[in-house]
Amino acid sequence: MAKLNISLPDATAQALRENAEGGNVSAEINRAVLQRLADKELRRIAAHEQQNPPKYSDADLLRIGMGMPL
Fold first, then answer.
1. Could you write out the DSSP letters of every residue in 12-57?
2. pLDDT over 90 at 62, yes or no
3. Cα(63)–Cα(22) distance, rounded to whole angstroms?
4. Cβ atoms of 27 and 21 closer than 8 Å
């Protein structure tokens, strides 16, 4: 596991300490970073889909999955 040193404004650090679930600041920061990365990935996927619309709708895919003709 990597160990990082970070700098936060005093007020942010205090709020983090006071609100970290179970007092675990590292876990709270880890959750926040993972959420931020997931948000960025979802935005990347949405931009890609906007530029490259899917060939089939969700309803079409459901019909195909059920072996029904389009």
1. HHHHHHHHSGGG-HHHHHHHHHHHHHHHHHHHHHHHHHHHS--SS-
2. yes
3. 47
4. yes
pLDDT tens figures, 5-51: 999 999 999 999 999 999 999 999 999 999 999 999 999 999 999 99
Task: Yes or no: say if 70 and 60 are a contact pair by the CB < 8 Å rule.
Answer: yes
For residues 43 and 68, give the distance between their C-alpha atoms in angstroms, rounded to a whole number.
Answer: 33
User: Which residue carries 């679930």 as its tokens?
Assistant: 21
The answer to whether the CB of 53 falls within 8 A of the CB of 45 is no
Q: Are 16 and 28 in contact (CB under 8 A)?
A: yes
